[in-house]
Predict the 3D structure of the following.
Amino acid sequence: MVLLNIFTDIWNAFAYGIFFYSLGLMLVYIAIAIASYFETQTYLQRNKFTDYSLLASSEYIPTVSILAPAYNEGKTIIDNIQSLLSVYYSKIELIVINDGSTDDGLQKMIKAFNLEKVDFYINYVIPTKKILGVYKSTNPAYSRLIVVDKENGGKGDALNAGINIATNHYFISIDVDCVLEHDAILKMVKPFLEQTDKRVIASGGVLRIANSCHIEKGRLLKVRMPREYLPRVQSLEYIRSFILGRMAWSRLNGLMLISGAFGMFDREIVIEAGGYNTNTVGEDMELVIRMRRYMEEQDRKYKVIYIPDPLCWTEAPNSLKVLGTQRNRWTRGLFQAMVLHKRMLFNPRYGLLGMLSYPYWFFFELLAPIVQFIGFVFFFIMALMGLIEWGFFFGFLLFIICFGYTYSVFAIYMEVSTYNQYRRRTDVFGLILTSLTEPFFFQPYIMLCGMRGYIDLLFMKDRHWGEMPRLGFNPARDDTTPVYSELVPGGAVHSPRKRTASARKESRVYTVFKTSSNFVIAAFKNYLRYALVFLLLLFAVRIFEIVYNIFLHGIPKPFDEIILISFIKDAAFFLEIALPGFFLYLLFYLVNRKLARIVFILIVSSIILFQVCLCQYFLVTTVPMGNELWSYPSLDFLAIITSEGWIRIILILLLFIAIIAILYHFVPYRIVIKTSMAQLILLLFTVSLIIHVADIADNWTTDLESTNNLSLNKSWFLYNETLEHYTQGKLEETIYSPSYTGYFTNDNNQAKPLRPANNTAQGTSNKNNKR
Amino acid sequence: MTNKLIFYSCLHGSQLANVFLRHFKQDYLFGAIKVLALAILIIILLTYIRLFTKKRRFLHKNQIKKKLEGWIGSGLLDKKPEELRNMPIPKKMLGYLNLRIRRQYVIDELINMRRNFSGELGANLSILYERFGLKQLSLKKLRSEKWHLRARGIQELYVMEQRDMLDKFYDATNDENEFVRMEAQTGIIHMLGFNGLEFLNHADYYITEWQQLKILQQLDSYEVRPSLDNWIQKWLRSENNSVVLFAIRLSDHYQLYSQHDNLANCLHHENENIRIQAACSLAQLANENTADILVKQFPKENSHNKIRLLDAMETVTTEKQKPFLIELLVNETGVVKLKAARVLAVCCPGGLDYLEEKAQQDPVHYKGIFLYAQKQIPEWFS
C-alpha cells in the first residue's frame, strides 16, 4: 500500500512536471512571438535610413576574409566559388579550405582558377591538422582567392585553418554551397561599423531554403517555394526559427547560435576564445557560446547581432535519410555544446546568458526530444492498458495542435508583412497547408532523429558530421547520380543497382528477406498513392453531406464541433481499414501491378458511391442506415434515396464518379513517397488497426443525438451494425419479414430462432443508444 | 514546435485527466480551441489582406510614378522658377494629393528624382514639392514624437534643399535618437558641405564608424575644401572619442600634413582605437621622424596593436629602424615576428639577405619566415 502511494506521488509529480513544462514552453513561444514582432518593426524602420550603396563604394570599408570549408563538394565547387567572388563587396579575401576531400574538387579548382602552390607562412594561432598546401591563382582576376589543402579534420578544424591563414580583422564562415544575396556582406559588416561602447563579436543572417529556386552560376534569379514536401516544411521551420525565434533573442541580446552556414565574427575574439572546437559536431553553436562566455568572464561589453534580412540561400535535405542525419548531428552538437558549458546554467555571473538563454536551450531544445519520446512511450503503454480518457486526450491534443498552427501561421504572417520572399498567393497557401501536416509527420520524425542522436551519443557512435549529398541547385542527372529503382512485380527490375562485393557476401536468407521487404514497401508506396486519394474522396463525401444537410435541415449545432468530429471520424475510418485494404491490394499486386490498381479503384469507387447513397438515406430519414439494410426490401431503400427524384441522385452519383475519375487521374502520380515515410505510415496503419482507432473516434460525441448521427461515418456504422448483428446471431422479428405476426416480446430467448441468421431484425445495436 | 507539445497531451489524456479534471472543465478546453481556431483564421485573413495591400500599393505607386514622370517630363522642369511658382497644377495631380498615403508616394517619387537631378532641374523639383504642399507633411513628421517619423521628415526636407530648416537640423544633430541624429548630420553636410562639420564642435554622442564613412563619402562630392586645420586641432582635443577618431580620419583623408604633430600626440591617447588610427594616419602623413615616433610607441602597445603598428610602419621604415626590426625577429613571437620580417624585407636594404642568412643558420625557425617574406616583396622591387 505504501509502495502504491509512493508510486502515485511520483506519478503525480511527473504529470504536473510535464504539464508545467508544456505550459512554460507555450508561454515562451508567446513571448518570442511578441518580442519578435516589435523587434522586426524596429529593424524595418531603422533599415529605411540605410543606404548600402554608399558603403559599397567606400574605400574605408574593412577587408573581410570569407572562409569556406569544402568536403567532397566537387560537383558544385566551381560555381560556388564564382558566386562568392562576385559578391557586392570590394574588399574580400576568399579562403576555400579543402578538408581532405576524396573527390576531384581540388583538381577542378586548380584547373578552373589557374592555381599554383605557393610558399605560405602559416601562423598556427589555433592548432589544426596538417596543411598540405596553399594555392593562389596566377590569373590576376582571381587574386582574392586562396585555396588551402589540408588533411581531413572536420568542419571546425577546416575553419580554424582558415582563421590561421586569414589576415583580416573580421571573417565570415560560410558553407561553400550557399548562395549569397548580392548585398549580404554589406549587411553583415554594418553592425561591426556601428559598434559603440559594446563590441560586436558576431553577426548572423537569415538562411533561406533554395530548393526549387532558379539559380544560375551561383546567382539567385528567382525565388520559388520548394516543390517537394520536405524542403517546403523546412522552409516553414526556418521562417519560424529565424523570423520569430532568433529575432526575439536578438532583442534581448541573448543569441546563442549563429548559423554555421553564414556568420561573421571578430577574428581577434575568436582567437582569444580558442577558435572552433574540433571535438564537437555543433561547432557553430559552441563557438558562439564560448565567445560569449569569454566576454562575460572578461567583464567586457559585447553584442551578438542578428540581421533579419534574407541573406543566404541554402539547399535543404530532400530525403528523410539526409534530413535524419542532419538533425541527428544537430542534437549531438547541441548536447556537446551544452555539456561543455554546463556551469553557465542558472549562473548569475553570466547574466542573461546564464539565466535565460542557456536554460531555454537546455530545457526546451536539448531535453525536448527526450520529453517527447517519454510522452510517446507512456501514451502507448497507457493506450494498451486502457487508461486513456480519450475525450480529454483528443481535446488536449487538438488544443496543442491549434496552438502550434497559430504559431506557424503567425510566422507566415510575419514573413509576408516583412521580407515576403514567397509573393504568390498559392505559395502562401502552400505554406499554410504544409503547416497543417507538419505535426503529424515532420515533427515526430524530427523527434525520432533527435532520439537517434542521443543513442549515438550514448554508444559513442558516429562522432563525425555525416555526409550531406548535394544535388546542386539545378540538378541535371549525370553519370554519378545513383539510379534508384522501384521493384515491380513479375521480377522486372528496371535499372538495378550495381551489386557490390559486400552485397554479394550477404547471406541468402538476408537477401531473400531484404528483397521481400523491398517488394512489400514498393507495393505499399504504390498502394498509398491510391489510398490517400480514397481519404480525399471520403472528405469530399463528408463535405457534400454537411452542405446538403445544411440545405435541408439548417446549420447543425454545435457546427464547428460537428465539422471537426466528422472529419476525424472519416479519417479514423480510413486508418482502420487502410491496412486490411493494403493486404488485399498486395494480393493483386503479386499478380500484376495494373490489376491491383484497377481492382482497388473499383472497390474504392463502390465504397464511395455506396457511402453517397447512405448519406442520401440519412439526409432523408435523419437516421443512419444500420443493419436494417439486410432486412429492408431493396426497393424500399431505393425509394427512400430517390425520394427527391431519380435525377437528383443520379446527378449526385455522376458528380462523384467524375470526382473519383479526376482525382485518380491526376493525384496519385503527383504524390511522392519516400521509403522512410512509407515505413512510418505503415506503422501508423498497423497501430490504428490494433487500437481500433475508428471505435475510439466513435466515442467522441456531442450532447445532441441528431448531430451525433450526422458526424458518423455511415459506412463504418453500417459495417459495425452488420458485424454485430451477424456475430451475435441476434435475431429479431422484423416488420418487413413475411413471417411477422405483430407479436412482440422483450425476451430474447423467446424470440429465437424464428428466422435464419441472414434475415435480421430491425432495430439498432447498443451503439445506437447514443443516437 | 507542435510536436514538443503534442505528446505531452498523451500523458494529460490519461492519469492527468483525473488530476486536471478537478480544476478544468472540458468546456474550457473547447473554448480555448475555438479561440485558437478563430485566431488562426484571423491571422490567415490578415496575411492575405497584407499580400493584397502590398500588391495594391505597388501598383498604385507605379501608377503615380508614371503620371508624375509624364507630367514632369513634359517640359515642366525647363521652366523658370517664377513660372513654376505661378503655374496652375492640373486637377488630376491635385487628386493624387487628396490622400495622405498618396502624398507620401508623391514625396518618395520626388525624392528619388531629386537625388538624380542637381542645379536648376533639382531646384524646380523642390519648388514642386513646396507647391504640392508636401513640405507641410514633412514638417509634421519633424514635429512627431516617433523617432522614425522625425528622421524621415529630416531626410525629406534636406533632400529637397529646405535651407530654412537648417537650425532645426542643427539642433537635431545632438538628438538622443541615433537615427534622427544621423539624418540631421547627413542633412547639414548635404546642404553646407564642409561647413556643416561644425556640428562636431558640440557632438555629445558617439559618431559610429558607419556614420563617419557616410560623411566622408558625402564630403568627397564637394570640390572646394576650406582649411580645416583650426577645427581639426579643436576636434583632436574633444572629449568625445568618436570626434577625435573622425578628425584623425579627416586629416588622413585630406592629407593634412600640418596635423602630423597633433596626430603624434594622439599616440598617447588613452583610447586604443584612437592610438591605432593615429599611427595608421601618421604613416600616411609621414615625415622623417614618423618611423622613430612609431618605434617609440611600439613597446607600449599590446600584440594586436603591435601588428597594426608594423603594418603602418611598412611605408615609413628606413634602414635606421633595421636593428629594431632584427630585435623583433629574435624576441617577438607569432604574427609580430612575421610582420617584422615583412617590413625588414620590404623596407630595409639587405633585409631579405639577412633573413636568408638566418634561414640557413636556423631553418627550423626562419625558413618559413624567409619564404613568406620573399613572397611579400613586390616584383618591381625584387
Remarks:
- Chain B touches chain A through 67 residues (CB under 8 Å).
- Residues 240-315 of chain B form one domain.
